[in-house]
Write a structure and sequence with these properties.
The chain is an alpha/beta fold and 197 residues long. The protein contains eight helices and five strands. It has a five-stranded parallel beta sheet, with helices on both faces.
């Protein structure tokens, strides 16, 4: 099948582990708790903030595009989204002038309002800057959602709603986070009720 020895067996094993991570009831339960939060945010004109590090920062940016653009339905209200991982000048200013653990929390203190939503992504659930961002959001009256894996780390108990991928693989955890993103986007675009302000 391939010139790469062992590739087929490896790929089959990887895909089997991915399917196992998707088969658990946690995913539908978690999405079921997130959707009403996003519907309320859309209906009331609240801002949804996204943040994470590395691959999770990339997924956070992907969320911003999909939920603000793709999840729109006709001329109905859109979801206002902000990616805190995308503002490179702010990230470097806070990281350089204070400490890296404050790069998200300080942005939230400037931008967030009570009733907004913060979606934090951390594969391990233990990234100090992500945890600081969630703590700041909660102090500001912002609803917090955590997407994590590998046991959930501290984020599991800190976020108002946490979805913990039942895998010890960072790759499978991030795979599922992207799937959750696309599931939420498709539902809000195709099936979720529209409320007008």
């Amino acid at each position: 099948m391939t010139d790469s020895p062992g590739l087929e067996a490896f790929a089959r094993g990887y895909l089997a582990e991915a399917r196992a991570a998707l088969a658990e009831p946690y995913l539908l339960e978690g999405v079921g708790r997130i959707v009403p939060i996003l519907l309320r945010a859309r209906a009331s004109g609240r801002t949804v903030f996204f943040f994470g590090n590395g691959g999770s920062a990339s997924t956070a940016s992907h969320f911003v595009v999909d939920l603000s653009k793709v999840a729109a339905r006709g001329d109905g209200p859109r979801i206002r989204c902000v990616g805190l991982s995308d503002n490179i000048p702010s990230l470097t200013a806070w990281g350089n002038d204070t400490e890296y653990s404050r790069i998200f929390s300080e942005q939230l203190k400037i931008l967030a309002q009570p009733g907004d939503v913060a979606i934090a992504l951390s594969g391990s659930g233990n990234s100090p800057n992500v945890l600081a961002g969630v703590r700041a959001a909660k102090e500001l009256g912002v609803t917090t959602i955590g997407l994590t894996g590998i046991g959930g780390g501290q984020l599991k108990d800190l976020a108002d709603v946490a979805v913990v991928v039942p895998s010890n693989s960072m790759q499978h955890t991030e795979d599922v986070h992207v799937l959750i993103l696309h599931l939420l986007t498709a539902y809000l675009r195709d099936a979720g009720p529209i409320s007008r302000r």
